Amino acid sequence: MNDESSNAWAILDRESWMLERSVQERSRLGQSIHDEERLQVLNNALSESAILHARNLCELFAEPEGKFARDMPLSHLLPDWDWAITKYERLNALL
Predict the structure, then answer these.
(1) Is 53 helix (H, G, I), strand (E, B) or coil?
(2) Disulfide: which of 31, 53, 83, 84 matches 18 by Cβ 3.0-4.6 Å?
(3) 9: burial class by Cβ within 10 Å (0-12, 13-18, 19+)?
(4) For the chain, first and last CA: distance in Å?
């Protein structure tokens, strides 16, 4: 695996990990925080974090080549994938 594709996998791993941890921490918030305002702020921050990382993961798979120049294209994760075949052609071939 080349450096570019290794880096892309690290980015995907971090997005997945941050989404999972945000959801886990949000579910544990009420157990240890008794200040209602602080609880609300942290709850909102963790909710926004989970939404942000979920959106990043969705965009990666929904827009395989990215919308912007700075986006990580899905082809960096799967460089050997035949991107010339459309998803419908691939599905028909599997049937």
Answers:
(1) helix
(2) 53
(3) middle
(4) 31
